[in-house]
Amino acid sequence: MQAHGKVLKYGDNVDTDVIIPARYLNSFDAKELASHAMVDIDPTFVERVNDGDLIVAGKNFGCGSSREHAPLALKTAGVSCIIADSFARIFYRNAINIGLAICECPEAVAEISEGDEVKVDYDTGVITDVTTHKTYQAQPFPPFIQKIITEGGLVNYLNNQE
Amino acid sequence: MAMTMTQKILAAHAGKDHVAPGELIEAKLDLVMANDITGPMALPIIKKMGGHVFDKDKVVFVPDHFTPNKDIKSAENARAILKFSLDEGLTHIMVQGKNGVEHAILPERGLVYAGQAVIGADSHTCTYGALGAFSTGVGTTDIAAGMAKGIAWFKVPSAIKIHLTGKLPPYVSGKDVILHIIGRIGVDGALYQSMEFTGEGVQELSMDDRFTICNMGIEAGGKNAIFPVDDKAREYMRNAGVSEWVEYEADEDAQYVETVEVNLSDVRPTVAFPHLPGNAHTIDEVEAADKIYIDQVVIGSCTNGRYSDLEKAAKILKGHTVADNVRVMVVPATQKIFLQCVDNGLVDIFVKAGCAFNTPSCGPCMGGHMGVLAKGEKCVSTTNRNFVGRMGDTQALIYLASPEVAAASAIAGYIANPEKVGGEN
């Protein structure tokens, strides 16, 4: 499994209120949420993002509310993977639970630029910046988490345990 | 091996004698909660996992975010969780007019108490640590799994010790303490960690102060925040109708990655400037700069909508009038608190001062309704987040503060020092 796309880059503390503002939370329709993704931090995001693109961001990505609408909006908008210095813990869980790949790699975040073409190999944790020909090593998911992802999220994982 | 309070609770709920930081465990849950935003999204997932809750006593849906229903979609969502609650025969049915905001109503009703492991599909679920419970916020999938199966997986957190000494001065309260702490350690200062409060200063804090402090643990990135159980906590739980609970204490040689010393006597009224809760400034710094004129004040929410919060604000507002440039929303967090405000004359004070006195709701805190901000407006709010667009337009500015600062600012028309506006405390 791998991600492959161009990069949209953001700073530190991208919070769930800018990823999907509360005024849109009266719906949990994934496509509707995706149509408002990132609107309060980058109104051009929805036009610019293509299927498979990656978000690269600073520390504490997804801080704030527990709304699972946030990773769902990004995944449905086309984001294949988020690389950040660190993630807020609830966002981290929610992303895994809905099958959105995320990895922590400050070295990659420091050097990858907006618009770069990047690949991420989920099995090895290797991040390749195709544009600059540089590679970075992120921690691959532990087996426990890989199992949740390969079984299609937490729901299937728990159902399959019975 | 020595364990923190959080680690001991998690070990007990995972059926283990011992857990270590970083270890992945599966814990049995004592209470699982969702609201009218996260709950409806969980229902189809619960359906996929058998369609029923694991225990009718231990699953609760609280309508509070977009209620009173602000539009048709919100009405459908509130209806969906009520219908599911009734169909499942849940023991605790929450309906507008009888309950309130989730993190105030669950402790008030005695549904959360010391020694429990609790998850809620709301980030401020960490509030219940004030009673000595492990409680943390999760998303919709986790909450659906918790409701259907009664379990959740956790990575055992390492801990930060917050050692409290001294005693809070007048006009300084729990909100100032937590804004001060977040200002020092940053909005990711406790990322993935538990915040464990200790020290002789604990006994000087009211339960409402502790709820406020734990409530905002998430704003430092914390997995949970927790206080030791003392006589004040025991009295609170008994008054809430709880007869049995389990008290855990951290081992004396438990490991902490960091210790933060806070002398409560030195904490000043503190304001978090836009757009992060960690952007803390003392009231003295605020007074030394140009006046910050405001358009709205909100006094309420799961952070500061409890009775003593409103009482502090009322004491300052008594006999004063809200400035002409300001509108004030006072929002008691539960119906019981609402009634106390009626019975004890607080509503009279608020209304005579020129405040709107509203029904319990999360409304204005996340820009839902009942106090949305226009472009360029400034708001002093006793809520918990001042992110871009949180309470309305992306160009609105939110200043987080205590009920005392909020009340003083309402009178002055700009961010003001409650020590100087007067009132009794």
UniProtKB/TrEMBL annotation, chain A:
CDD domains: IPMI_Swivel
Gene3D superfamilies recorded: Aconitase, domain 4
EC class of the enzyme, as a word: lyase
Gene Ontology molecular function: any one: 3-isopropylmalate dehydratase activity
Pathway: Amino-acid biosynthesis; L-leucine biosynthesis; L-leucine from 3-methyl-2-oxobutanoate: step 2/4
GO BP annotations listed: L-leucine biosynthetic process
Keyword Phosphoprotein found: no
Family statement: Belongs to the LeuD family. LeuD type 2 subfamily.
The protein's name: 3-isopropylmalate dehydratase small subunit
Lineage of producing organism: Bacteria, Bacillati, Bacillota, Erysipelotrichia, Erysipelotrichales
